[in-house]
Amino acid sequence: MATAEEIRDLDIVNVHEAKTHLSRLLQRVERGEQITIARAGKPVARLIPVEPSNPRTNVRGSYRGRIWMSENFDEPLPSGTYLRLLDEPEPLFAGAIAAANFRTLSVHPRHVFALPELPDIHRDPFDRMLVAQALVDDLDLVTGDHEMREYPVRTVW
Q1: Fewer CB atoms inside 10 Å of the end CB: C or N, the chain?
Q2: Is residue 145 part of a domain?
Q3: Which residues, listed in sequence order, are joined to residue 36 by a DSSP beta bridge?
Q4: Cα–Cα distance between 2 and 15 in angstroms, integer?
Q5: Is the residue at 72 inside a domain?
Q6: What percent of the chain has pLDDT over 90?
Q7: Which of 129, 133, 131 is nearest to 149 (CA)?
Q8: What is the pLDDT of residue 9?
């Protein structure tokens, strides 16, 4: 519990004001302010900035040696060459995803709602969805596509 002196140094708002102006209060908190919420003049909660739990930076080359892709990965396969899927690929993929500390992504409405806000740089709808997911969920986007780097998203490769 905060001391009376600490409370005097903080901005205090009542519950009604906090509910009515939550977005504005959160903007102030993002700038580093602390805001106390009071009920009937008695402080009951505090809005404070949260330090990122895993700050990341887009350092070019930070994945060097950890990701490898053949120079001709996107060339057509020789005639008569066929790819055969494993009988049970799920355990293999699940193991590889876990070993790489990756996580799978689902498409959620929040990603779809971000699509109209994207600049019209890339025409591929799947790539645009990847950008929306990276932006909305604050993710690094692994891509060699130069057009994707024009979006305001952190890229690796």
Answers
A1: N
A2: yes
A3: 12, 46
A4: 18
A5: no
A6: 17
A7: 131
A8: 45
Output 98-107 pairs: Cβ under 8 A, ≥24 positions apart: 105/133, 105/137, 105/139, 107/133
Kindly report the CATH number assigned to the domain that includes residue 25: 3.40.1620
Range of the domain at 129: 102-156
Q: For residue 139, is it within any domain? A: yes
Task: Kindly state the helix (H) or strand (E) to which residue 27 belongs, with its residue range.
Answer: helix 22-30
- The residue among 74, 78, 69, 141 whose CA lies nearest residue 105 is 141
Mean pLDDT of 129-141: 91
Q: Which two tokens stand for residue 98?
A: 């876990």
Place of tokens 């009951």: 44
- Asked whether 131 and 122 are in contact (CB, 8 A), the reply is yes
Q: In the 8-state DSSP scheme, what is residue 77?
A: P
Overall domain count for the chain: 2
The answer, yes or no, to whether residue 1 has pLDDT greater than 50, is: no
| Amino acid, res. 64 | R
- pLDDT, tens only, 77-115: 777 776 666 677 777 777 778 887 777 788 999 999 999
